[in-house]
Amino acid sequence: MAGQGRIGWHISGETVIRIYGTADDSIVDGPGIRFALFVQGCRRRCPGCHNPGSQSLTGGQLVSAEALLAQVRANPLLAGVTLSGGEPFDQAAALLPFAERLRAELPHLNVWAYSGYLYEELACEAPSPAARSLLELVDVLVDGPFKDDLRSLELPWRGSDNQRLIDVPASLVAGEAVAYGHSVQNKN
Ligand code: SF4
Predict the structure, then answer these.
(1) What CATH number was assigned to the domain covering residues 17-185?
(2) d(CA 140, CA 28)
(3) What local confidence, expressed as pLDDT, does residue 184 receive?
(4) Could you give the 3-state DSSP secondary structure of residue 151?
(5) How does residue 50 score in pLDDT terms, banded at 50, 70 and 90?
(6) Of all protein residues, whose CA lies closest to atom 8 belonging to ligand 1?
């Protein structure tokens, strides 16, 4: 039975994630074949949102970290996992158990995240402690809200020109946003 606890939703004691959907073999949400997890819920209401059905805070379905990890394990061709939405960092407490186990159990997979937050907001003024912890588990952050007037089909892995590809580990070391570059590409 599901109920809302202090840090999120729970089913039989396990924290669960409210999701809009998943893609088992996405090739558009980062490099290589990826498991893409689209969380449910985003307050930004960007005009031209690529996933308007993911905006409702009450829609979607509740799934456990274990169920999602089973989907990831089932595809040996995956290069990585992408957290998208909706807004992943507004569900950081629920996503953390999934992301922590993903890192521990499947360390060969890289992790990308799409967020309407800027890197600086997540690193320095995180909306929750869990959001900062989740950031630390991400390799590449595609940051900033989608802007319809800056939309472009020419931008790899981005919807609009304001969005940045951030190398998160390098950025955390440098203390400022570092553009995603060859160091992460070589890892894929
Ligand atoms: S941040 Fe993303 S999911 Fe949220 S409204 Fe904007 S485009 Fe849609």
Answers:
(1) 3.20.20.70
(2) 14
(3) 44
(4) strand
(5) confident
(6) 49
Strands 9-11 and 34-39: what pairing? unpaired
Question: How many whole angstroms separate alpha carbon 117 and alpha carbon 88?
Answer: 10
Pocket perturbation via mutation, ligand 1, pick of 83, 146, 160 by most ligand atoms within 8 A of CB:
146
Beta bridge partners of 84: 38
Ligand 1 atom closest to residue 42's alpha carbon, by position in its atom list: 4
* Distance, CA of 183 to CA of 169 (rounded, Å): 11
10 — pLDDT class (breaks 50, 70, 90):
low
Give the mean model confidence (pLDDT) for residues 81-92: 97
Between the CA of 13 and the centroid of ligand 1 the distance, in Å, is 30
Q: How far is the CA of 54 from the centre of ligand 1 (A)?
A: 8
Q: Where are the domains of the chain?
A: 17-185
DSSP 69-107: HHHHHT-TT--EEEEESS-GGGGHHHHHHHHHHHHHH-T
